[in-house]
Amino acid sequence: MRSADGTRLHARVFGPDDGYPIVLAHGITCAIEVWAHQIADLAGDYRVIAYDHRGHGRSETPRRRNGYSLNHLAADLDSVLDAALAPGERAVIAGHSMGGIAITSWSQRYPRRVAQCADAVALINTSTGDLLRDVQLARVPAALAATRVRTAGSLLKTFGATPVPKLADRANRRFVGYLAVGAAAEPEVGELVYRLFATTPPAGRGGWARVLVDGLGAQHISLSNLQVPTLVIGSTQDRLLPINASRHIADNAPQLAEFVELPGGHCAILECPAEVNRRLRSLAEGVGRQRISS
Predict the structure, then answer these.
(1) AB hydrolase-1 domain: which residues (predicted)?
(2) 45 CB-contact burial (10 Å; exposed 0-12 / middle 13-18 / buried 19+)
(3) What are phi and psi of 292, to 5 degrees?
(4) Domains along the chain?
(5) For residues 222-245, average pLDDT
């Protein structure tokens, strides 16, 4: 499919053609594959629609800096919904990390489409703003907190846009693992996360890193238009988007369905897949019962 600006987007559909739709939006430097546990579990009963953000996976990678913004993130999600859902059909829309930011950006910019396309949403290991305040790259005295935030932002933008040379593979692997994966995660989780990072085009990584660091400052994305049941999942050892970010969303969601705190790091969909799957099923079943009763 193509987004509003013509960028080619890649999506895949799993499960029965007549199944209730669940849409999955992955995080930065990932791809459809990161949802493997959820697809394997949910596609037995639901029509699961997963897509690659621009600059990721098999979607097109814009080369110009102006090809990335929160507006693009929202418009791409809307294009996927327009292509994948039948007229009048609504879905559960789930986003991990940047995928969650896609959902909240979409709700802010396309309020009428929320009522048309969403029965409920799930926001997993994500944030609505103040992106760098709690990121745990290094602990410093309170007096140096502002410097730490600026340094973290510069590091994430630079690291995100840099090609991955073989000589630095081990150091890069450790850094990505430290940020994205909890200490108790199985080794294959870290391996998958790093492989997805390394195979994401540097232009895509850098473009989105700039957007998230520069575009999500102290001012938060408004949740006022997200007038649907909202599942919020955070992880207690998340170093990239610590649990405070999820708590903020839970405190401000207009229709909070459930707030879940899981153990582990930033990748709850890989580190605690059974629990995430159970909560997504419960959300889908809940809105299903609501549709029947109404």
Answers:
(1) 20-271
(2) middle
(3) -65, -45
(4) 10-293 (3.40.50.1820)
(5) 96
